[in-house]
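Sample intake — DNA-binding transcriptional regulator, GntR family
Collected from: Pseudomonas reinekei
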Amino acid sequence: MSQKPNPLSSIKVNGPIPAHLARSVIEQTLRSAILDGRLPCGIALRQQDLADLFGVSRMPVREALRQLEAQALLNVVAHKGAVVAPLVQGDAAQTYALRILLESEALRLSVPLLDTADLEQAARYIDELETELDYTEIGRLNRLFHMALYGKAPNKRLLKLVEDGLNEEERFLRFNLEAMGLGKLSQEDHRAMLRAAQERDVEGSVKLLTLHLNRGVEVITQYLNSPEAQSRNNPK
């Protein structure tokens, strides 16, 4: 019987890691590997294996895993330790309801503070989304567009929660957009939100965001109820 490949073999570590950077390097390296699928859902990450891979003690590994758990990228499971989380956790409608609350507040705080450079950058992300065909890039650009509009919100803890939600969505879209069969993604919602932000119409932009996210949850919920999605996102 052939031995299963070790998922950690896809992670390359370049030279010794300075002790004061160890936690950050491990966190960012594992985060990238989870987001791009090199570390797939359900894979258990053993602290000692990671310590050996990065050439460090278990302490910075433990701290990095704790940070990734806080970002909903890992779950701690009895007898298995840290396990790469499923692509979608819990009820999609509840997840999006929370996103609407958090992102609406971030947008409300940010719009009055956006400058010309912020708005021009958001417009460039839309232009790129119009022509992009790679699903990985579409998820990334979608996250960057939203953060361009939210980024001036002065509440940094709120922005951290918002970005965690967008990271989760990016990871889901990366692996499911093609299977969802949506075809060319319309950017009308994004353009309408940008126009409202340019006009400093705070409540109008929030209303458009709410409509946009509600449309998203309808499409995703319908897809998640399909047998294909359940087998893809909840591996045994």
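Post-analysis note: Residues 106 and 150 are 5 Å apart (CA to CA).
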